[in-house]
Design a protein that fits this description.
OB fold (Dihydrolipoamide Acetyltransferase, E2P); five-stranded antiparallel beta sheet; alpha/beta; single chain; 36% helix
Length: 253
């Protein structure tokens, strides 16, 4: 039990660097803080790292800049969503300003100094603590929202809460561990929740999961093509309806 409690409070981290020696060196430095931080994966292939990050939750990413197939900044641009801390690791100090502009939490110059690394770990801890506090605030606001019976849906994204009315949401689409809300004013809001979790906070008299990857707003349905198995929503959005869901979907009307 004590081991599980310690693991719960550990910082979960990933290292991405094209040089195996650099990964080995940083892993060794981080092993000195094994009671605070745990490395769950290392990658010298950025594409594989991107795939891993879409399917796993972490607290910190140690990211190299100079990589042949994709540099660190290109890597960050390809991330659809990130709520973890990014620490840039590089031998070139000219990237410092650009790293800050990309919202990197910290910047470590190779060879990495032990004191600098210790300070970085402290910063990552504060970052995670703020994220946990944000989740607590979200739960309080959700309860408050329910008491007021405002029928608004609270969405936690990019460190802020967005409150939407049901009529503003067209549909929600799944992307692994993420979900994207598509609104009537053509906005897209990405959240770090699976579609299954999203489904629990939506009023089931208005929203229906028509497919493993889609939840739609029933009030926005214009047409249903039974043979081909899809619906047309407002603004002509075409959404598939799975065979297993057809009967239940029709019962909603």
């Amino acid at each position: 039990m004590l081991f599980l409690i310690k693991l719960l409070f550990m910082l979960i981290s990933v290292i991405v660097d094209d040089e195996p020696k650099a990964i080995q060196s940083l892993s060794w430095e981080l092993s000195n803080y094994s009671d605070q931080i745990k490395i769950i994966a290392t990658f010298n292939n950025p594409e594989k790292a991107l795939l891993f990050l879409t399917e796993n939750n972490i607290d910190c990413l140690f990211l190299d800049i100079e990589m042949p197939t994709m540099d660190g900044f290109q890597f960050l641009n390809k991330l659809k969503f990130r709520d973890f801390a990014v620490v840039i690791t590089t031998a070139y100090n000219e990237y410092a300003i650009k790293a800050l502009k990309k919202d990197a939490l910290d910047y470590l110059l190779k060879p990495i100094d032990s004191d600098d690394l210790e300070e970085t770990i402290a910063k990552v801890k504060k970052h995670r603590s703020r994220a946990l506090d944000s989740n607590k605030i979200e739960k309080v606001l959700l309860r408050f929202n329910e008491k007021l019976n405002t029928k608004k849906i609270a969405i936690n994204t990019d460190g802020k809460l967005i409150f939407l009315e049901s009529k503003e949401i067209l549909y929600i689409v799944s992307d692994g561990n993420y979900s994207t809300f598509h609104t009537t004013n053509n906005k897209k809001i990405v959240v770090t929740k699976k579609l299954k979790e999203i489904n629990t906070i939506l009023p089931n008299e208005i929203f229906f999961r028509v497919h493993n990857s889609y939840i739609i707003n029933l009030t926005k349905v214009k047409e249903f093509f039974k043979t081909d198995g899809y619906v047309i929503l407002e603004d002509n959005h075409k959404i598939p309806v799975s065979r297993q869901k057809k009967s239940e979907f029709l019962e909603k009307f």
